[in-house]
């Protein structure tokens, strides 16, 4: 009779404090019932006077041990299920209180709002910019939101909030650079799917190198013709070019990849300008100097994408030559070695020149100044590579003849 009342009491208590999780509900109730039945069955086998006069049988010992084990399991499960059934826990306060008391939440162990939360919000907004298509009206809304957060952080004149801008922009710059490189790689793979593999097979045959070189020459001529057509198409405005490209492509995957590449390049230029505005241009210079793979892919990119990369590189090299910019000499060398070839081989548009005449002169001066601060051996490598590219390129920019002459003069002086 007493055992049945105990079971009823346990069931009543459990119903009034039922956990919210179904799995824990089942496990907890099973454990409680098993423990109660085992202990009650052991106690009912003998009275109190009999327990003092005889030993327990083997079945009693097993039942008692089983009861103890289930009781231990019950104690282990209670802390897991207790927070879910408590109406005053910190989880309940955070999840269900509409205007919760901040002091109460802090007392329950919930972290107070900090500057890092604003940094996470800015990183989230910048990441959304990479995901949203440029044709969506929400894209400009997201960009405006990021600009608003960064501008208000800068107006606060707080060092921690300025660091939020710099850290978020540097992280987004690195992520966008990696995504742009992957997009260019996919675009090149799509172009070479039907052309690259057969040429490699032909080259492996006897006298196949001559045939492959002829085919490559023909391909270069076709690409040049396409480049001229692209330059003529630049007479249209940028928005019209995008609309006409969408109409011509009819939603093809290849055109979508090209638009995505151009979008990422434009975002990189925007981030570079923001890095300069908020005093984190050194971080952009370091990350751009490591983008050797992207620099290699940029030589065969579309003219508009090349133009955007030329602008980014020119901006960073211009900042590199400033006395206030402090970066190691290795960073200077990597930046110039990776991106100077693009200046010589980029195909510039007619209606929308990448750089004005004044900007080109300023970039040449910045390159000259940056090279002059490097060791003689680094100068030799950079200027030799520049001369190789400049001599075979149709472009007359950048003209680093003064830097080459100065380096030759310095070598003569050392010899004398």
Automatic annotation (TrEMBL):
Q: Which GO terms describe its cellular component?
A: lipid droplet
Q: Which UniProt keywords apply?
A: Ubl conjugation pathway
GO BP annotations listed: protein ubiquitination
Q: Which domain of life is it from?
A: Eukaryota
Pfam families in the record: BTB-POZ_ANK-like
Q: Is Ribosomal protein among the key words of this record?
A: no
Q: Which residues form the At3g05675-like ankyrin-like domain?
A: 256-408
Xref: InterPro entries: At3g05675-like (IPR038920), At3g05675-like_ankyrin (IPR058039)
> Quick one: which pathway?
Protein modification; protein ubiquitination
Q: What does this protein do?
A: May act as a substrate-specific adapter of an E3 ubiquitin-protein ligase complex (CUL3-RBX1-BTB) which mediates the ubiquitination and subsequent proteasomal degradation of target proteins.
This chain belongs to the protein called: At3g05675-like ankyrin-like domain-containing protein
Please report the organism this UniProt entry assigns to the protein: Brassica oleracea var. oleracea
Q: What is the lineage of its organism?
A: Eukaryota, Viridiplantae, Streptophyta, Embryophyta, Tracheophyta
């Amino acid at each position: 009779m007493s055992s049945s009342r105990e079971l009823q009491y346990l069931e009543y208590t459990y119903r009034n404090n039922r956990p919210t999780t179904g799995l824990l509900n089942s496990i907890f109730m099973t454990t409680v019932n098993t423990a109660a039945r085992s202990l009650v069955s052991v106690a009912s086998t003998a009275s109190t006077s009999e327990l003092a006069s005889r030993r327990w049988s083997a079945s009693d010992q097993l039942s008692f041990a089983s009861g103890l084990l289930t009781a231990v399991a019950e104690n282990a499960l209670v802390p897991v299920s207790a927070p879910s059934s408590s109406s005053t826990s910190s989880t309940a306060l955070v999840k269900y209180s509409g205007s919760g008391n901040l002091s109460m939440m802090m007392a329950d162990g919930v972290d107070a709002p900090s500057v890092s939360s604003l940094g996470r919000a800015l990183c989230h907004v910048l990441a959304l910019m990479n995901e949203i298509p440029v044709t969506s009206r929400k894209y400009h809304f997201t960009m405006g939101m990021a600009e608003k957060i960064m501008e208000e952080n800068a107006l606060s004149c707080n060092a921690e909030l300025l660091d939020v801008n710099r850290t978020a922009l540097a992280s987004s710059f690195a992520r966008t650079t990696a995504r742009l490189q992957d997009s260019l790689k996919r675009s090149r793979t799509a172009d070479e799917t039907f052309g690259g593999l057969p040429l490699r097979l032909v080259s492996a045959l006897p006298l196949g190198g001559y045939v492959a070189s002829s085919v490559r020459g023909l391909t270069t001529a076709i690409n040049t013709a396409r480049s001229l057509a692209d330059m003529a198409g630049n007479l249209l405005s940028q928005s019209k070019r995008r609309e006409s490209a969408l109409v011509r492509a009819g939603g093809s995957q290849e055109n979508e990849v090209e638009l995505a590449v151009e979008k990422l390049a434009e975002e990189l230029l925007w981030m570079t300008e923001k890095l300069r505005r908020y005093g984190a241009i050194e971080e952009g210079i370091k990350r751009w100097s490591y983008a050797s793979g992207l620099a290699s892919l940029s030589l065969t990119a579309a003219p508009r994408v090349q133009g955007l990369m030329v602008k980014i590189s020119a901006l960073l090299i211009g900042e590199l030559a400033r006395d206030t910019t402090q970066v190691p000499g290795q960073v200077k060398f990597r930046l110039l070695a990776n991106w100077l070839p693009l200046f010589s081989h980029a195909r510039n548009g007619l209606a929308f020149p990448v750089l004005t005449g004044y900007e080109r002169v300023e970039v040449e001066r910045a390159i000259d100044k940056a090279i002059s601060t490097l060791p003689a051996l680094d100068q030799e490598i950079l200027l030799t590579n520049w001369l190789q590219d400049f001599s075979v390129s149709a472009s007359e920019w950048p003209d680093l003849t003064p830097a080459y002459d100065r380096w030759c003069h310095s070598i003569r002086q050392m010899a004398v």
